[in-house]
Amino acid sequence: MTAKNISRLTHVEEREIDRLFHAVPGAAAVTRLSAVETVRARILLSVEHGLLIPGGKLPSTDLIAAGLEVSDITARRGLESLVEDGVLERRRGRAGGTFVAQKPPKINDVAVQAYLEDVPAVRILIDQRSLMESAIAAQAAQNATEAQCQELEALIRQSANAANWHEHHIPDTKFHRLVAEISGLAEVPAYLSNYESLLKYFVPYPQEKLVEGRGHHQQLVEAFRNRDSLAAMSVTREHVDALRREMFFGLHVANPSLSE
Predict the structure, then answer these.
(1) What is the spatial distance between Cα 127 and Cα 118, in angstroms, rounded to a whole number?
(2) Average pLDDT over residues 64-76
(3) Distance, CA of 115 to CA of 14 (rounded, Å)
(4) Nearest to 172 by CA among 132, 124, 207, 121
């Protein structure tokens, strides 16, 4: 299997790997939720954790769709349902758009509850990603060309220049998928299934909180240039381990006031 044909799986391959992956005991599954419900849950979790602040403006619907990896119509329906619930509000005019309500109500949403019930499985996904991504980074350090390192750095710059999390998410995921391509390992499809399963649980983050992750990415590129597999593995483990603090279930530990 070459790097060129593992960048993105076909829909048939994605479905089959996803089916097998979620058959593994303890693997995460939010499959009982509709795509619209996942949009609701991820936006609600961001609002509840203060990542999307009262009165804050949301990006355009197409950017939200790209960031959450759903269709535009799915994103629109999810947002409209939250407008109906009073969590979000629409404003007309030149400065209009979709905003978080000044006093969003606390909603006992079944989709959010499903996410919370999956926390033990998400932790397992993080463990699996840490192991697989470390091996991928180690091999990529032996394979990466200067042109590929420059391509990775271009993605880091795109992320840094993004106006919001949704815009950042696009080059960020391309970065991880390109690293997987560079490794050329036969196990990459299984890794991509793990990686994309975790993406379903990511919630929108303020752009300023993403600086550390971009720093890890730059350190990884430098390890590639130096052909330093040990350094690549070390920074990868640190990068993935941050998910334990930064994903929705880790925020209460980092900020106990959120539980009050």
Answers:
(1) 14
(2) 93
(3) 22
(4) 207
